[in-house]
Specification:
This protein has two domains: 88 residues, no CATH class; 109 residues, 3-Layer(aba) Sandwich (Rossmann fold), CATH 3.40.50. Helix content is 57%, strand content 14%. It has nine helices and five strands. The longest helix has 24 residues. The chain is globular, with a radius of gyration of 17 Å.
């Protein structure tokens, strides 16, 4: 109930003019920093848990990288509410997710019309959410690619624990293991080959 109310609140706030202006500027900054775009109608979507190795796998892919962690950092710097709270399940947590979704949508709506090659570096765990984004890419005649990055759970938990340990050394609360266990793991709909024009499974260890 708290999550639902918070998400409704965050969606409404995201359209409040001062907030909308900041979110639009974040999207514009990310697009501008990409520089001269590579015009090649290919949309590459990573699927996998945080710390599974998506960024390493995608590093060799050319295109505008839409990186959720990067958007989180930018949004945290803009809104005091989000700077004070990294804990899972709080109002700040869900507001950050909604604001990040808004920025990512703004970027996609801009660059897909131009034919820019796009690399979506997010978890993309839910099949329904993947379908919406991939359907949008197909409207603009993109070739779609899913790269499913997998990792043994024991290895993944080690990486998440290391990331939490690093947060603690910086005086921040641990969040990564909790995010995986309470949010990401229950949300995963493993992707299938029929979701995109091309489909790859890349294990990391």
């Amino acid at each position: 109930m708290i999550k639902t109310l918070t998400c409704f609140w965050a969606v409404a706030i995201s359209y409040f003019p001062p907030v909308r202006t900041k979110l639009c500027q974040t999207a514009k900054d990310i697009i501008a920093e990409y520089g001269t775009p590579r015009l090649h109608r290919k949309f590459i979507m990573a699927v996998g848990h945080s710390k599974a190795g998506k960024r390493t796998v995608l590093a060799r892919e050319e295109g505008l990288h839409i990186d959720t962690d990067d958007i989180h950092r930018r949004i945290n710097q803009m809104f005091a509410l989000l700077q004070r709270d990294d804990l899972v399940g709080t109002r700040a947590y869900w507001t950050r997710q909604i604001f990040t979704w808004a920025v990512r949508s703004m970027i996609l709506n801009d660059v897909l019309q131009k034919g820019v090659r796009v690399v979506s570096d997010s978890c993309n765990l839910r099949a329904s959410e993947r379908r919406k984004v991939l359907r949008l890419a197909k409207i603009y005649h993109y070739r779609t690619v899913i790269i499913y990055v997998t990792c043994p759970e024991c290895v993944l938990l080690e990486r998440l624990e290391e990331a939490d340990d690093l947060r603690v050394t910086h005086g921040e609360p641990p969040v990564w293991v909790t995010i995986y266990q309470t949010v990401q793991k229950p949300r995963l709909d493993p992707p299938t080959a029929d979701e995109a024009d091309e489909f790859f499974v890349i294990p990391t260890a």
